[in-house]
Write a structure and sequence with these properties.
Elements: H1 12-23, H2 27-58, H3 66-79
Length: 81
């Protein structure tokens, strides 16, 4: 088992205590579950970004410049008024 030391933001300890008590679990269990969830979410996000970048590289003809996309969205929003 590894030990990690960190300095939590001032609001974290009270929230951690509350959640641990509500779940009747040790604080270390709550921290592990929170980190697992966060890391899984970040990994999914990173994979999605990488897939999008790969698609953009492979299909540049299907890409729209940001300014053009925003102009289209603004026009749609204005038409919907």
């Amino acid at each position: 088992m590894n030990t990690i030391t960190f300095r939590p933001a001032t609001d974290i300890p009270a929230s951690l205590e509350k959640v641990a008590a509500m779940l009747d679990r040790p604080k270390s269990w709550v921290i592990n579950e929170a980190l697992r969830s966060y890391l899984a979410t970040q990994a999914e996000l990173a994979q999605a970004i990488q897939a999008s970048l790969k698609f953009a590289d492979e299909h540049p003809d299907q890409m729209v410049p940001h300014a053009d996309a925003m102009a289209r969205l603004r026009a749609k929003a204005k038409a919907g008024d």
